[in-house]
Amino acid sequence: MSREIIAIDGPAAAGKTTVGRRLAARLGWRFLDTGLVYRALTWLAHQHGVPADDTPGLLRLVPLLDLRAGAPHEAKSATTVWIGGQEVTDALRDPAIDADVSLVARQPAIRAALIALQRRAVGDGPAVVAGRDIGTVIFPDARLKIYLDASPEERARRRAAELASRGASASLEAERAAILRRDALDSQRTAAPLTVAPDAVRIVTDGLTAEQVVERIQTLWAQRQSTSTGRAGATGQ
Ligand code: CDP
């Protein structure tokens, strides 16, 4: 039996969070951005002076993490993240976190330690869940799996605009390089690498607005609902 979950996986800055959040708000579902789990652990590591490749040190920080999927009424805005009484929402999107997060996330023991936390954060669903391994590892039984993609140029433009909107300085070239570095680390790692699940629908978002992507996914969900009984997932666009 598939679960009432829409999994959105894809490379860095492909729009998973923006699209996932809007989609969840429309459907009245919960939304979880699992990237925040890895970002929060990386932030904690920086605070505690734990190097990004120190697996035992990182594992000791895991119990400090507490996350839950945002309720539908919260889904429209960014998830506010608190760690130990401190609001860290913007800090988690900092280039310093971008630089280390994939080094943290590539470690098999770390990923294993975070699986239960992510499933617990989602609860019984229904939910939209965004990440890298949602359709392959965390919720392989998700009823609809989307792989959101976009060219590196488009993704660098989006990330630079996002940073600029928060008053941070960003050069297109630096963002493009940072994104490509993370893509390489995320795709080449042995533990749950970024990959297109065989039953995922790939959507290339160059030239599409977030709203158009949300609509496309909603249409796919409606089709999936009407044909879900006993049918394996469709592939292709
Ligand atoms: O928002 P953006 O696509 O740039 O990144 P993110 O979703 O916040 O994820 C940050 C990093 O966490 C990724 O580059 C991965 O290294 C890691 N990650 C992961 O390994 N598995 C997930 N399910 C989500 C994120």
Structure notes:
There is one protein chain. By secondary structure, the chain is an alpha/beta fold. The protein has a single domain, classed as Rossmann fold, CATH 3.40.50.300. Helices cover 48% and strands 14% of the residues. It contains 9 helices and 7 strands. The chain has helices at residues 16-27, 35-48, 55-61, 95-105, 108-122, 134-138, 152-165, 172-188, 210-227, and strands spanning 3-9, 30-33, 82-83, 86-87, 127-131, 142-149, 201-204. The strands form 2 sheets. Strands 2-5-1-6-7 form a 5-stranded parallel beta sheet, sandwiched between helices. Strands 3-4 form a two-stranded antiparallel ribbon. A hairpin with a 2-residue loop joins strand 3 (82-83) and strand 4. The longest helix is centred in the last third of the chain and has 18 residues, at 210-227. The radius of gyration is 17 Å and the shape is globular. Residues 232-237 have low confidence and may be disordered. Cytidine-5'-diphosphate is lined by residues 12-13, 16-17, 34-35, 38-39, 101-102, 105, 131-133, 182, 186.
